[in-house]
Amino acid sequence: MVHTDPAIPDAKPTIKQVEFNTIASSFGGLSTRVSQLHSYLNGIAAYPPTSPPTITPPSFPANPCIESLSHGFSTAHRAYGPSRSSPSLPLCILFIVTVPETNIFDQLALSTPLQTAYRIPTFRLAFSAILDHTTVSSNKDRILTYSPPHSPEMSYEVSLIYFRAGYSPSHYPSSASWDARLHLERSAAIKCPSILTHLAGSKKIQQELATPNSSHLANFLSRTSSADLMERIRNTFTAIYPLDDTPEGQHAIRLATSAKHSEGYVLKPQREGGGNNVYGSKIPAFLAGLGDDQQRWRSHILMELIKPPTLRNSILRNGEVQSGEVIGELGVYGVCLWRNGHDEAGGKKDGEDEDGEILENWEAGFLLRTKGSESEEGGVAAGFGAVDSPCLVDV
Question: Which pTM does this prediction carry?
Fold first, then answer.
């Protein structure tokens, strides 16, 4: 997100990172379609003309999300290799989804090319039905087998699991739900993401990397990046603090419990999906409601608010056009496939670096979310924003 410091007159806008999502990063499919829609509307002169013209065909960058993300899935599918079953089974990809699913068309935009262009059988399976339709072999191969409910006599070996569910506590209503997640994790199928990658995207990990004067970022980048690059990365972070007994945590608690100083911050729990944060002046009362429960305090992080510049625009949502001051948040998708550097016992594999090996790593398109400047949250699926596309102009 672009940030301007209101305390510094004529401050140059800078890029600031809001968060890093590693599970169920949605709207890749719809963002491509919206980019195509806006380009199409420009092509039929649907936008008001300006003199001199500021919006031209090059103003609408191509957005390759559908192509790039589906290609990423097919790459992982190939990396899994041939069937390990005996006799061999056809391979498939599983999309793990919620029921009811409100974001099905975005998901279908990614699964359809897998079926039509890559000829990979791709199925949707409700998180709540995992144990009903899958099995994991008891031998060391840990083969995950899927039998579609519409054709139970047919079996497929699962090469890749793509989680579009499993990120919210509401997805785990019983012990069977946790058993289902463990069931998938212990299988040999490639996971997008694995539980470790899922947790690496949590707010707490982001806080550990971005807390002022934290040394953790250098632990990951010192061997591959220059000091200048690491500093540039640090400059994209806003200040993020724990709420604990450390000096940084005690500083954050003083900020968060102050009616004056809390205005510049947002309090975030370890949740995904939007609608979970507490903003500004509401923070002191919220924390007071937690009482002396230190565990609940520590389950939150305190993040400095990003203050992006506003633009005047219109948003179409639920059939209604709303015009006014808006702000945008740009997300960049990526594909990363790696091989672990340790065997299941935790030892180093022969001939491999202990940190593993990155097989594929590429940028895979973008998502621009636009919302009213008065809106605190930005989640589209949670009802706070709209899918948009960039319009590039010369300034």
Answer: 0.90
